[in-house]
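Predict the 3D structure for this chain.
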Amino acid sequence: MLVDDSAVVRGFLSRWIAAEPGFSVVGGAANGQEALDLFDVLRPDIVLLDIDMPVLDGPATLARLLARRPDLAVVVVSTLTRRNAEISLGCLARGAVDILTKPESQRDLAGPAAFRGELMLKLRGLAARHRRTPGRGMPPLPGFLRRAALPATVRPRVLAIGASTGGPAALCRILRGLSPVSDRMPILLVQHMPELFTGVFAEQLRTQTGLAVAEAEEGEEIRPGRLYLAPGGRHMGLGSGEGAAVIRLRTGPPLHHCRPALDVTFADVARLFGPAALGVVLTGMGTDGTDGARALVEAGASVIVQDEATSTVWGMPGSIVKAGLARRVVPLDGIAAAIREAALP
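Done. Predicted structure below.
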């Protein structure tokens, strides 16, 4: 279901989605009130929701939609401004599953294919949630996962965490439970998110967790007690400084349609810290993080991933499990404890 006050935007989105096998647009609405009036009749699986609309805006509409169906997948569609970043992240905190940034003008909407590609990538990932067989759990875990309780031979000196769809809420919950790990080692955070949004997100995490979270800056030394969030639009890697690891920000091409990409961060962490690293992969669509997890495991480090039942989308963590790279597969509420167990003496 498309909810946007622009008929042009609804037209573009409708044509693109209708051309994708397995999808159909059940209806559209020019404001939130129209969407609510049509919702029980149309019964959509996914709603694309604009922020600025007359009569009833996006945030108010989101609250009423989720009150009717708490498990509804709502993607907030927003132009790239700081105001909209703050509103969109507030929507994520209240139950939206993802953010999609659209071009600033309707003319630009018809131009670059990047927006259309990102839209369909997100929709395919969310659609996978509806193809799960009810009552069917994960297949039996490989033997190495059943041995996950074995102690690590080297305690980690750095923690790297990555997430995508559903990640902002999951990250906040985990970080609240990471004391005293957060005091003893630097923590690198990669959340798939556009520029402008990551600065606002860092502020929110700092306020909600009380931890020293900030967007990473080029050349700064990573230190215990600090959390470094990869800036939107740039990959976050690491380089060697004067006896310490330093942040290296890159503007290379996206990996797996992502920039920042978790693979970049994991690969550099593996190269510089070897077995003295710990990787964590949370909910998210796609396969970003799998190649980086392989680099960590080959370097002797461990990787913990979120389980399917508590993930909004089990793409990134599921890919790592299927590749045989996860040391532990843990529900969201148990991940902080698993990190403390691996990191603390």
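The domain at 2-131 is CATH 3.40.50.2300 (Rossmann fold).
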